[in-house]
Amino acid sequence: MVQTLVELIKIPALSPDYGGEGEYDKAQKLLEIIKGWPFDKVEVYEAPDPRAKNGVRPSIIAYYYGQERDKRLWIITHLDVVPPGEGWTVTEPFKPLVKDGKVYGRGSEDNGQSLVASLYAVKAMMNLGIRPKRTVILAFVSDEETGSKYGVEWLIENHPELFKKDDLILVPDGGNSEGTFIEVAEKSILWFKLKVKGKQVHASMPDKGLNAHRVALDLAYRLDKFLHEKYDKRDELFDPPESTFEPTMVRNPASSPNIAPGEHEVVFDCRILPDYSLDEVLEDVKRLADEVRERYRKDDLPRIEVEVLQRLDAPKPTDPNSEIVKLLKEAIRRLRGKEAKVGGIGGGTFAAFFRKLGIPAVVWATLDEMAHQPNEYAKIDNMVEDAKVMATLALL
């Protein structure tokens, strides 16, 4: 298992959105690893993307039939990783290092640990000659980190025959260090950019221009205050229990302290409880933008544009009493002697796509939450123990 994870980490699988070539090489390596394994069927689906290597973003689906073939358990992990970032000290991002019971490298925990765990959960059954109670379908998909347009979303839109209403779906891409948190709900996600256009001028003569930076700061402050006050409901199913509205990125072309910039951009990352409508939130954002525009109006300036960068309306949560939740709780209880709890998160996973289809999906893994950080690692014990839970889930 460790060797497999090491081999996969060595291959950067960065989205073209991040300047990478995509997942093609990593998918080929994975196919090479499982060649000769007695899967009953292995299929490769290729979403067209001219920016990627060979013009495709591949997803691999491998079937291991159960005693009751029509009862199906999907375990879905992703091939792609986020960019390395800065601050690595233990090793270089794509030069994996095994040390102190951990495997270091970009993509080790997110999502290599669970990918390998799912592989060897099935491999253990193969080695023992065991046919699980239900058919196990392993899916290794592209493009999770940048929205799933070329991954799960593409598969659902172009191959809807793959998924059935009574399928059970496990997405091992979130959890806690104890392996006792089962995610059944997600907040809606809204990323938007405020683009303010003023008139650049020397900072000593501000009356001759219109400082876009000041306008944007005022608008961002008003928005931050208003959104938190209006959308203040709490739901203890989630952690944190309230909607969040975070200004995250700013940009303007000022290259000197004495330039009052004529352009300024602010990005907000909003994670909103499912009770609220994203359309209503956007209407409020645009209304406040209009109010600030009037406040600073000077001839035809400022111009303020609201650009939606990403939007994902939260689907109905998975029923905490659904079969997949009950089976996963039982597997955790048997193997670890612990009672798992259900809850919601602010982050997005592709479990949401299945919930929209009315297919119950859960997100669960045992993680130290090192995803996207420098010195990301996967704990070997977590990988092995999660494989046991996955195998048990297929046998129950």
How would you describe the overall organization of this protein?
The protein has helices at 2-9, 24-34, 108-128, 152-158, 212-230, 278-296, 323-336, 351-356, 380-395, and strands spanning 41-48, 56-64, 68-78, 97-99, 102-104, 134-141, 168-171, 181-186, 188-197, 201-202, 238-239, 244-251, 259-260, 263-272, 303-312, 341-345, 361-363, 377-379. It is an alpha/beta fold and 396 residues long. It has 2 domains: 2-186 and 315-395, 3-Layer(aba) Sandwich (Aminopeptidase), CATH 3.40.630.10; 188-312, Alpha-Beta Plaits (2-Layer Sandwich), CATH 3.30.70. It has a 6-stranded mixed beta sheet with strand order 1-2-6-3-7-17, with helices on both faces. It has a 4-stranded antiparallel beta sheet with strand order 12-14-9-15, covered by helices on one side. The longest helix is centred in the N-terminal third of the chain and has 21 residues, at 108-128. It is elongated and about 80 Å long. The mean pLDDT is 96.
The separation of the N and C termini measures 24 Å
Shape assignment = elongated
Total number of distinct structural domains: 2
CATH class of the largest domain: Alpha Beta
Helix content: 25-40%
SSE pattern, N- to C-terminal = HHEEEEEHEHEEEEHEEEEHEHEHEEH
Architecture of the largest domain in CATH? 3-Layer(aba) Sandwich
